[in-house]
Amino acid sequence: MKGDIGVIGLAVMGQNLILNMNDHGYKVVAHNRTAEKVDEFLQGPAKGTNIVGAYSLQELVDKLESPRKIMLMVRAGDVVDSFTDKLVPLLDKGDIIIDGGNTNFPDTNRRVAALKEKGIHFIGSGVSGGEEGARFGPSIMPGGSPEAWPFVKPIFQAISAKTENNEPCCDWVGNDGAGHFVKMVHNGIEYGDMQLITEAYQFMKDGLGMTHDEMQSVFIEWNKTELNSYLVEITSDILGYKDTDGEPLVEKILDTAGQKGTGKWTGINALDMGIPLTLITESVFARCLSSLKDQRVEAEELFGKKKSIVEGDKQVWIEALRQALLASKIISYAQGFMLMREASNENGWDLNYGNVALMWRGGCIIRSAFLSNIRDAYDIDPELSFLGSDSYFKGILENSTSAWRKVAAKSMEVGIPMPSMTSALTFLDGYTTARLPANLLQAQRDYFGAHTYERVDKPKGEFFHTNWTGKGGDVSSTTYNS
Fold it and tell me: Which SS3 state, helix, strand or coil, does residue 184 take?
């Protein structure tokens, strides 16, 4: 009996996905560039299963039923191209290559187009949930060649996480790089969520002078509210974890954050598309700032910065902080969906935003209770341009604004950096302001560069130039795109 699917790459994510597939009755053929890794897997975690090994790409291809489905769980970039180039001569028309890594979506666009000319289908699929998700049910976001989806759908939906209503957290996202784009935005929102939580932690620790046991209790309670989520849950676990000397382990971890690039890609795409992804971009910059550890230590001493205590009722501040965190989190998702909407329009993907929310409801790192509310919002209005306009989220934002402003103002007053939480508030203020000062900005651009402007008392699309100094001339430069 031939295998249902082949998987290349036996790092922890690849191994766990294979074991997950085996649990659901699929025969998997496992391959790795190093034969020792295949032997270790077959004699270790895969021992006693129906999983079989392949020690060459030809053997892998020969052991699979047609149309062959081969999933790459390897490092994004050149490695994917290398394996693809080696596989294509061994495959038949209609066979399917699946990239399950964190690939930049233009690469998936390119691969789908190139393989289509050879009659090979290509799927670029985001997979979220880490090691545990891969083993017991990840969120899976496939896109690429739509002809391939019916052959992959049963496997992916079987191994994916399920909602409380047993709905699979996996569905077809769209053509070309749509799946990897949605995964990229997922990771951007993940950056934002993590940064917001760390800002709340610093406010409690440095501003309110709370102990780690106190902070753990707060996050446990918050997880019983609208903030219920995987990241809030693990934060409570982390804050309660003690090192061998009985002290909180988290305080012994160097405060320099790493990143693999997906948050940066999200910010770059937002800039390219003109979408104000302020919160997520600030979270990326916060990681960049954290890496300047030596400079920060010197600057603190140079400026003589002292920690200031936040005065007042601690419980009142904790509730205000909860509301500020919740409101900021809503803005993070709202901005992410704005970016997906623009990308869908530009690329003709026809994304189903309710389905995206469903795919993120379980298995993935950003899974949270209010994703069900996001799904409901887009079911009611599939063309919803701003998540905060939905009645449920509008109500939370309006009710939280006073507490949000209080926390933001106090953080600036006492010198606690909260870049993502404050930028989210500034975004909402800007988004809900009918007239912004960009009229002055346009006047400046016309003054020094003759770039023209539109007038509120004239039809939109009609451009004007003023000779502001009497010396600049009446000829305009170029118009702008509003």
Answer: helix
